[in-house]
Amino acid sequence: QVTLVESGGGLVQAGGSLRLSCAASGSIFKINSMGWYRQALGKQRELVAAVSSGGSTNYPDSVKGRFTISKDNAKNTVYLQMNSLKPGDTAVYYCAASSLDDGLRSGYDYWGQGTQVTVTS
Length: 121
Hints:
Blueprint: E1 2-7, E2 10-13, E3 18-26, E4 33-39, E5 46-51, E6 57-58, E7 67-72, E8 77-82, E9 91-98, H1 103-106, E10 110-111, E11 115-120
Parallel strand pairs: 2-11
Antiparallel strand pairs: 1-3, 3-8, 4-5, 4-9, 5-6, 7-8, 9-10, 9-11
């Protein structure tokens, strides 16, 4: 089994930055791709970033140019750097992992508990 734990969320003013971390433990050899999702109050969960086993990344237009997903394999950790934050970015952010090459296409198997990000005007 794989356990994912997010951290780094908090309260930030519009225009500021946050760096979310997702630490993986357990059967980490099963992880081949990872992604970040968010869910705002009253809205459906949406993708904010994804990285495949080959290193290809995907971002929706809403965050492209502002958010960056990266990995530190030595620490078994994936990051989400969020810059130029807007109030619309307020949501619970979730880390996800898949044993397949592209979790975005095949579906993610493991999910973290989520970390709250609140952006004020």
